[in-house]
Amino acid sequence: LAWTDARTFDKTGFDLYVQKLDEDGNAIYANGGKDVALNPKDQTTPRLVAADEGGVFLFWNDNRYGKISIFMQRIPATGEFSYQDNYCVYVAYNNQKEIQVVKSKTDDFYIAWVDEKYGPAATKIHIQKTNRWGATQWYQEGILTCTSVGKQYSPKLSITNDGVVVAWVDHRDIYHTKANLYAQKISPDGE
């Protein structure tokens, strides 16, 4: 389990904690879980993805640099990890929100997010591929999935045999209030 916690809010803002449960549902980690990121400012929106060898990968939004960025951390089955292993997937001058993550059959991760650098009325969906150590595989900013006018948000991801499909809500028809759903297939090479 992973969650946002306010127990040290007065010192570090919202932080992330994890807890491992045994087969009977009993907590393994003492003291209400283990903290993953106790950095100044907020860490929110945790997303867990299972690791093949046990353990999990945790992705989250992190405001430690002043704008909401995307971080990841591998948490092995033993539960032993180091804060130095917090990998920054993407830092920019604008916020990245609504992160979604899926794991490929080759142990890479596809991460989609809403990027606010185009303005609040023109948010866009970006997608990035990382390896299990947090190294990005495509351009620093990831791939822009749609260049149409209007606002795109609420990304969802689905793995295919040869890449990933990202779907989103789209308000490209700026003169009407109805939204549409769009999708784009992206190959493992980012095309």
Task: Please summarize what this structure is.
With 191 residues, this protein is an all-beta fold. 2% of the residues lie in helices and 46% in strands.
Question: How are the SSEs ordered, and which strands pair?
Answer:
Elements: E1 2-5, H1 9-12, E2 15-18, E3 34-37, E4 43-50, E5 56-62, E6 69-75, E7 87-90, E8 96-103, E9 109-115, E10 124-130, E11 143-144, E12 151-160, E13 163-171, E14 180-186
Antiparallel strand pairs: 1-2, 2-3, 4-5, 5-6, 6-7, 8-9, 9-10, 10-11, 12-13, 13-14
Helix and strand element order: EHEEEEEEEEEEEEE
Shape: globular
Structural class: mainly beta
Radius of gyration: 17 Å
- Largest sheet: number of strands, sense, barrel closure: 4 strands, antiparallel
Low-pLDDT residue spans: none
Question: How is the largest sheet built, in terms of strand order?
Answer: 4-5-6-7
Strand content: over 45%
Our count of helices gives 1
Question: Could you characterize the architecture of this molecule?
Answer:
- There is one protein chain.
- With 191 residues, this protein is an all-beta fold.
- It has 1 helix and 14 strands; from the N terminus they run βαβββββββββββββ.
- It has one helix at 9-12; strands at 2-5, 15-18, 34-37, 43-50, 56-62, 69-75, 87-90, 96-103, 109-115, 124-130, 143-144, 151-160, 163-171, 180-186.
- A 4-stranded antiparallel sheet has the order 4-5-6-7, with no helix packed on it. The protein has a 4-stranded antiparallel sheet with strand order 8-9-10-11, with no helix packed on it.
Descriptors:
191 residues; mainly beta; four-stranded antiparallel sheet
